[in-house]
Amino acid sequence: MIYRPFGRTGTELSIVSFGGMRFPEPDKLEASAELVRYAWDRGINYFDTAPLYCDQRSETILGHALKGLPRADFHVGTKCFHASGSELRRSLEQSLELLQLDTIDFFYIWYLLDRDDWHRRLDQGAVAAALQAKEEGLIKNLVCSSHMNGDDLAEVLAGGYFSGVLLGYNAINFPYRQAAVEHAGKQGLGVITMNPLGGGLIPRNPQRFSFLQGHQDQSVVSAALRFNLSHPSITSALVGFTSAGEIDEAVAAVDNFAPYSAAERSGIEKHLNETFNDLCTGCGYCLPCPVNIPIPKFLDAYNQLILSEGDSKTVSDRFRLHWNIDRRLAAECIRCGACEERCTQHLPVIQRLTELAGDSTQATDQNK
Ligand code: SF4
Ligand code: SF4
């Protein structure tokens, strides 16, 4: 395993880290903990969680799994989305208890949506409460996570409150985040990326993404991780593992890690910019929908439309065999626009739902 410094914190993290949001059976404490310990045995030393992950079981699982391991050698990150200082404090204390820790290594001001949201966290006391907890030693490093676009996020980071940032970054959505990654690097901040495999879209379409692969890549997964980790400002890529096999695959992918050359990377970026910035990454930040449309599932089906170049059977199969949902549900959309405001990819969700509801699977998205 390769380890990289997280900004100027003096902490070194494994370049692949454990995202505790996808335990397949979170009610099974011991089996879930075994997965965490397996990752530890394979050299992973950063474990990321949040109060709501896995039906609120993720922090408990990590606490159970990491208990007894040498404390100085692993690092835990958890999060809080409350704007109020008192609620952040309550949430932090609960996280410490569930994780069975005296201090959180990386505590995130979680899920910054936009500039207004950032100002709410400042005005209502969340940031001040986190800084106070840091003074008291309950938090080692204050960080933030966000799906804001790169420029807005760079502005937040410039405020000097954070030691680093967690952001979605992969071969599909990187243009929206590039400015923040660059800025973080210049400021000496650590960067952890989430969703490096595009919510599974990249491994599910190996042919389509094969252009990412160099001769040293065993698979498109390896290539997608290499794409992330080739950016010199990125410390670690967070993967939501569901099995020991996935851990093995990711560790093998980075075992012989060699970054893309600048020329390779700019060729890939050019190709991606031209062809893939209209895909949904399945991040789910468009939810909730007031009429309960499972938007990421519909947009995933639309991805299939794009990736299959308009093959209606591929799209129908996706609805029927993969998601088991009735595509006519898309017609329930009341066009409130909330999802489009929140969409991390800035996708024309309403238009896509309209196309899918109308069975116009040959239609093309005019905003592509
Ligand atoms: S625009 Fe439609 S899909 Fe989007 S949140 Fe509103 S009702 Fe739901
Ligand atoms: S529509 Fe946008 S916000 Fe929703 S899952 Fe897809 S990329 Fe994420």
From TrEMBL:
Domain NADP-dependent oxidoreductase, residue spans: 17-271
Pfam families: Aldo_ket_red (PF00248), Fer4_9 (PF13187)
N-terminal signal peptide: none
Coiled-coil spans in chain: none
The 4Fe-4S ferredoxin-type domain, residue ranges: 280-346
MF annotations from Gene Ontology: iron-sulfur cluster binding
Protein name: Aldo/keto reductase
